[in-house]
Amino acid sequence: AEAHVKAVEAARVLNAFTVETPELALKAAEVADAALAKGEAKPLSGIPLGIKDLFATEGVQSAAASNILKGFKPPYESTVSGKLLADGAGMLGKLNMDEFAMGSSNETSAFGTVINPWRGKGNESLVPGGSSGGSSAAVAARLVAGATGTDTGGSIRQPAAFTGISGIKPTYGRCSRWGIVAFASSLDQAGPMARDVRDCAILLKSMCGFDPKDSTSLDLPVPDFEAALTGDMKGKRVGIPKEYTVDGIPTEIEALWKKGADMLRDAGAEIVDISLPHTKYALPTYYIIAPAEASSNLARYDGVRFGLRETPENGSLIDMYEATRSAGFGSEVQRRILIGTYVLSAGYYDAYYLKAQKVRALIQRDFMQAFERCDVILAPTAPSAAFGIGANVDDPIAMYLNDVFCVPASLAGLPAMSVPGGLSDDGLPLGLQIIGRPLDEEGVLNAGYAIE
Ligand code: GLN
């Protein structure tokens, strides 16, 4: 833990943390030593982790990287972070992220941009991906042994790919959402980000499990994910979805994808072509449903109950709401609220939101039909390697395109992970994505293990 505390201090230039809590990590290490001496070690005794700022952590600022929540210290702990701590882990601090988890580059944070420990060909700074960009940077730079992330439309997988680490989004409902700041409640899932697949399996086991405080939490036993890691793919069929060959996909991404298929074939799998016909509607569907749910979830930040309050002189209550929300929310969050309230408004609800829900069902059905022909699906995680800081900030559509391979599995609630697959022509990490059947995290992790 001490070495990690020093590493965190030495790497402040990355801006991976919003709050550092070395005292908590050191305390957990002390408790772990005492437990170890008595032969009572827990699964994660003394392991120093970082927790994404989206998770409520008792007594430690939990701001979702937003000005509107700066200074908010929850009197409670999220279920998932609480489970990790109960298993003996120590918290090194809160990890930076895109504001309210909206973004793919960690450039929308009110705490500033996070820098990817990997650098571009000309030594330029790159984004660490998003929204879990502090998590990916901190794991990649070995500041933490592992981190929590959340994934609504790719925010665990894409940053993992951009930094050369592993991360898994489990089946929707595996991890409790209680105490995690809500972005799009029907999509949000927590998951681990770590140096390798085995660490992901170990952390996931601690994070999962039924929680009566989340009505969408699944009441199912938690498998021993680590035991599933054999690397043997014999008898397994791996599907290659033809619709993921999107226009303009760089040759290096296609080559990576092929290499991943070869590795799984070498591990004993049979490679089969599959079709997910509604793939092209996934991105527009996601960018209707996610902002719609976000606009509703973010209505609670009104200056009354949490964090920031702006009170214009002689202003009314409405003036206070407006001033608080204008000052408290960054521009990407405001854009999402506007889109969300628009697609939910009377007269447009049927045309946008209801239609998107129907398309979502078709996307789910595509996957269920594909899984009659294969056990897992292999795809790239992102259409490119990490890009330069500032490269996409003025073009929200270009930024949203980054999520093209990640959002379908999110809309379908499926487990999906990213593992490092190789390097780009510029020597940057590229990720391969494995998507599994509902509740088959074991199959997903094992395929990742076979590639790693
Ligand atoms: N990049 C996507 C978005 O901006 C996904 C974010 C996420 O998964 N939290 O919505």
TrEMBL record:
One of its GO terms (cellular component) is glutamyl-tRNA(Gln) amidotransferase complex. It catalyses: L-glutamyl-tRNA(Gln) + L-glutamine + ATP + H2O = L-glutaminyl-tRNA(Gln) + L-glutamate + ADP + phosphate + H(+). It comes from the Bacteria. One of its GO terms (biological process) is translation. Its EC number is 6.3.5.7. SUPFAM superfamilies: Amidase signature (AS) enzymes (SSF75304). This is Glutamyl-tRNA(Gln) amidotransferase subunit A. It comes from Sphingosinicella microcystinivorans. The lineage of its organism: Bacteria, Pseudomonadati, Pseudomonadota, Alphaproteobacteria, Sphingomonadales.
